[in-house]
Amino acid sequence: MSRYSALLDIALECINEAEVLFVEGHGAQPAVRKGEGDFATKVDLNIETLLRERLQTRTGIAVVGEELGGQQAERMWVIDPIDGTSNYSVGNPMSAILLSLIEDGQPKVAVTSLPLAGQRFAACEGEALRCPASAGGKDVSHVGFSTITTRTKSPVPQVMRMDILGALACSKLRPRITGSVGVDLAYAAAGVFAVGVSLSPNVWDNAAGVLLGRAAGKTVTDIWGNPWHLGAVGAVIGDAEAHDIVMEIMQTQSKESQWASQFE
């Protein structure tokens, strides 16, 4: 048993409560405008508030969330109450609750819950991935690539994202745009997708998927192909062959860009 098993059990119990709010509020309309095309619903706020209260009370560990912020610490819970909020608000089930425990710059506990799909993916360091059975990886190789548009600071410009997507479409991989980075990375860890790609710079988008991938024995890096750590940009998670295809495409597309030096 991992020394993080008890914390994973607590995380799952807290997620049980959060899932009830998630399902009851499905279809909630925007309540807080965060910028052009970006918003949170009241359910985002309610779920994050619930998880903050439960986790702080039961563990005494600091919490950082997408909606309510917080001070980063060497040991902290990280919450994305609804990853794929725009999906959630229009009735699309491809949305998830993402929760992770970061310690010394690495995820140690992770839960990705898709309440509307009835799927949950969980792991803690030292234990295998807990997930629904998957029939993926036999005849079709999908790549999850949901960060097509960006309204946040990112080293990957919009035009390059489209070029990367186009190159992926011409490879042996079949792109899938779920609209949720958390779903993409969890599906890659579970083998539903051969590989999942996140270009997001936000820890709450990537940390849970990183640990899920590691627990499943997948290849896990940042977008430059380096080992993932707190502060890394994005994540690429998947089978070794599919991961190599993604990295080759990203390097090719970046040769004349401002971030090409990151591969050197």
From TrEMBL:
Pfam families: Inositol_P (PF00459). Mg(2+) binds at residues 66, 80, 82-83, 205. Gene3D superfamilies: 3.40.190.80, Fructose-1,6-Bisphosphatase, subunit A, domain 1 (3.30.540.10). It is an enzyme of class 3 (hydrolase). One of its GO terms (molecular function) is inositol monophosphate 1-phosphatase activity. Its cofactor is Mg(2+). Its EC number is 3.1.3.25. One of its GO terms (biological process) is inositol metabolic process. It comes from the Bacteria. PROSITE patterns: IMP_1. Keywords: Hydrolase, Magnesium, Metal-binding. This is Inositol-1-monophosphatase ImpA. It comes from Corynebacterium gerontici. The lineage of its organism: Bacteria, Bacillati, Actinomycetota, Actinomycetes, Mycobacteriales.
